[in-house]
Structure formats: C-alpha cells, structure tokens
Specification:
The structure is a homodimer of 294-residue chains.
Chain A: E1 22-29, E2 34-40, E3 43-49, E4 52-59, H1 64-74, E5 84-90, E6 95-100, H2 106-116, H3 120-132, E7 142-143, H4 144-156, H5 160-164, E8 168-174, E9 177-184, H6 187-201, E10 208-212, H7 218-226, E11 231-234, H8 240-249, E12 252-258, E13 261-266, E14 271-272
Parallel strand pairs in A: 3-6, 7-14, 10-11, 11-12
Antiparallel strand pairs in A: 1-2, 3-4, 5-6, 8-9, 8-10, 12-13
Helix pairs in contact in A: 1-6, 3-7, 7-8
Amino acid sequence: MARLDDLKGFLIAPDPEAAGLTRRLAGTDQTGAATQVSVVEERPLTIFLNSREIVTAMTIGDYPKYLALGFLRNQGMLNDDDEVTGVEYDDDLEVVVVRTARETDHEEKLKKKTRTSGCAVGTVFGDMMEGLEGLELPQTQVRLSDLYALSNQINRTPSLYLEAGAIHGTVLCEGARPLVYMEDVGRHNAVDKIAGWMFSEGIGAENKTLYTTGRLTSEMVIKTALMGIPALVSRSGFTAWGVDIARQVGLTLIGRLRGRRFVCLSGEERLLRDADPETVGEEDARHRRKGARP
Amino acid sequence: MARLDDLKGFLIAPDPEAAGLTRRLAGTDQTGAATQVSVVEERPLTIFLNSREIVTAMTIGDYPKYLALGFLRNQGMLNDDDEVTGVEYDDDLEVVVVRTARETDHEEKLKKKTRTSGCAVGTVFGDMMEGLEGLELPQTQVRLSDLYALSNQINRTPSLYLEAGAIHGTVLCEGARPLVYMEDVGRHNAVDKIAGWMFSEGIGAENKTLYTTGRLTSEMVIKTALMGIPALVSRSGFTAWGVDIARQVGLTLIGRLRGRRFVCLSGEERLLRDADPETVGEEDARHRRKGARP
C-alpha cells in the first residue's frame, strides 16, 4: 500500500480549465439577452474486457482508463488475482480495452446473464449483490472534525461543478485530507474512476472515507462496500434500500451533510464526535450546491 | 385525443402520505441526538415484453404499469401500431408483463444486441438514436408567463421530495397547467411513467411541455423528443450533447429555471416573452430544491 502520510493536498483534483471537458454555448437569458454558458461534455465510452464488449457509459471523458478498470472492478469482473496485462484507450473510437493474463469466467457468466436480461441493471445488480454476501467492512473510526474539514475543503475546491454545473463529484478521503476528486456526468462513473485509480495504484481502502454529491442509493452503497471503504458521506439524501444494505455490511452512512448539519443512519458507533457542531458555521451561500436544502 | 380543457388541477399528483413509498428510519443528528427521518423506498421492478425479460429498474414502486409501458415506448419496443392486449403486475414477484397482440421484432433485435453488449446503455442508446432520424417536433409556442406559473405551482405542490428528498420529479404540463406529476428515485423512471400514462390515455404531445428537476442530459432530451413533446424545462443544468440533440430536432430547451432566472439554449424562436421577469419574485428559500444555485 502506498504511503500517503506525507501528502497534504489532492493527488487528483478537478481541472475546470481542461480542454474538452466543457464547452461555451450561446443562448438567451430570461430577459431575452444573448448569454454564453459553460456546459459539460457528455460522450460515449465503450469498455471491452479482452475481446468482449461490456458496456457503453456516458461520461465526461477524462480518465477513461480508470473508468474502465473501476467499472470492471465494481462489477466483480476484475478481481484481485486477475493480472491486467494492458489497458488501451482509443480516443477516436471512444473505446477502452482492458486485457487480462487469463480470460476470466465473467465472459461466460455475462453471456448467460444477458440471455435473460437485456439491461445492465439486472446483470449488474445480480453480480454486485452476490459480492456482498459475508462482507464485513473494517471498523475504522470516522472523526466528526474530519467530516467538517473535508466538506469545507471540497466545497471550496474549483471544480467543473462550480464552472458548469450538471455534474456529480466523488472524493476519496483519508482523515481530513481529500485525496482524489473525480467528477462525471454519471455519478457512478465518478466512483468507478476512483475505484480504477485505487486498483492501479494499489491503494488500501480500510482507512478511507468516500464523499459524494449524489444520493445514497442502493447502487452507491453497494459500490462503496465492494470497494472495502468503511464510510460513505453525502450532501444528498438516502433511499431506504441504501440504508438497509449499509446496516447489513456495517458501513457508516452519513447523509444531508450541509454546513454543521447531517444525519447518520448506519454505523453510528464508529463516529467519533470530537467536534462541537455549534462552532461550525452555516454553509456560505456561494458554496451551496446540488442537494442543498435550506 | 382526450379533452383536457375543462380541467384545472393535477390529474395525477404526488401522494407523500401513500403507504409504501417512504419509511421512517431512526438515526442520529450532528449533536448525537436521536432523530427520525423520512426516506424514500427503492425496489426492483422487472419488466417483461410477452415472454421476454427486458430490464430490471430500480423504482419507488408506484405506477408500475405506466412505468413498464412508458419504458417500452421510450425504447422503441412498443409502437403506435402495437396492440397491447394486457398489462399484469405482480406485487410479490415485483414483475410487470406487457402483452401485445403480435410478437414484436424487438425480441429478435434485442437478442442480437445483447450478444454484443451486456448493458442497457448500448442497447438503449442505439435504438433511441435511430428513432431521432428525421424527427421534427411541432412548432408549438412556449409562453414565458406559463413557465413562471408552472415553476411556482410545482415547487409548492406537496411531494415526496419535500417529504423525504433524494427523488426526482417530472411533470407533464399544458399551457400553465401541470397535468401529471410523477416522482421516482430514477429520474428516467419518472419520465417513463408519464410516457406510459400518455400512451394508456391516448394523450397527444404536440401542445405539452415537460418539466423536470433533473439535468438535461442526452438521454433526457432524446426521451422527450421521442415522446413528441416540443419543450423541455429544468431547474438543473445542461450537458453539451443534450443541447446538440435538442438543436438537431428543434426542441425548446430551457435550463437553470429558478425564480425569474433561466437560460434557453435551443428553440428560442418559439419562446413567447409575454411576461416581465422583473415582476417575478426570487425563489422563496423554503421551496428551493435540488439543482438550486445561488
């Protein structure tokens, strides 16, 4: 596992100035005046595992290799004992090919599953739910002081969201430090890109917290648990099934985190209340974002 | 086409009190005090077309028949000339079966596609993009005064969002009247339920506007266009591809509608500016919701 102790800032942060991620489009505002707005790009990326086409994802288009690796990891199609021999990205074809030393049995599994299900959701959920059986997450403590520090820092970090909106963000954190901040038009892509980075860099999950701007749905909770991350935090709200699964696997689940406020619906026993919420300011209006409710 | 002229209010509105759509869950707040929050349900629904399993959607669970019909319509698997002979819903099995008089060729098409693609996104997008070729939407005018009236009424309507959060809303509107207000954990499900209702009731699309709380992504724009609705309005922002497609098919596309403000990035020529934005109040903080930015 990589040593991250000596690092202070982000290892990967959003680059709102990057070419190809946003576009200026001309339109009109409410007064009829001409206006220009920044809009995020959205493009297809088709992921292959060896010779088999697995999925086409709609993505903003940065970090296609991490997205492919993370997607396959989170679907259970790429395991710890699989040796990745190559990851090739073709910008023109909008294709990523992940190659493994041996053909995996997921090819056969997928063939069988897609015969009865035309869509990802069936395939994906079956595989993902299977992976949860017997899973127990590490009992890492989560400090309240860290949560407030993370939330504050993440909301003030320049991002595609602040530039153009209409995008989700997910941040891999360790203690009070945000390490990798990914954004994508699909919120699951942002998580998959983090999973791909962790897999590529050999980063352990047991002392990490995942912060997301998106809702705490079943799929988001399952992905976090399969990644082995013991805490998931969001500005947004919960679904009941998401909470059920978090309780089943012992994930600390915190939602509606805005300014000093939040709700913890699972894994409360691992929350170390080392900060007084009264000393935390309400959220600055300028940094309020998606999911914010007064 | 049904006559709607004599109707004033919603034909279908959210029912935040309905059994089975939300659950009270116990947790703790930032002070460590016990708290109870309302959380939306999320459950699988598997849709069959005749004998073929098509998809498993994660849904809040209301209007399963509309969801099934609308999903199949929006995927191009159920056309105007298909006669639906039955729609059966089994609550225990969480299954809807849609039966048609003749087997459709979509079964064969699906079989072929799923052989090369394990996921909905590939299958779905191919079919949906095909449906756009040569499509031209009706040149219906959109009144600014109607947009402001709709936005104001929809934001004040009791909803699962106001009760529990973490849910998307989509509203089919005619002039200044919101007709059918659907909510779902998946924003595409909310649109599909509206499509299913329109198909079941034989409702025309040419004088309608679709209002959504979600982002104006390619998939949202494609669905609206395939439904034949000439205007799509959202509180949230745009993706570049969504705007490209709207311009291609002549859809009036309005985003970031909050209080008096909005941006129109497509179909400006059909916007009738019959209201002075200066006379419209800023949004009441209590009614601010997802997508809101100061």
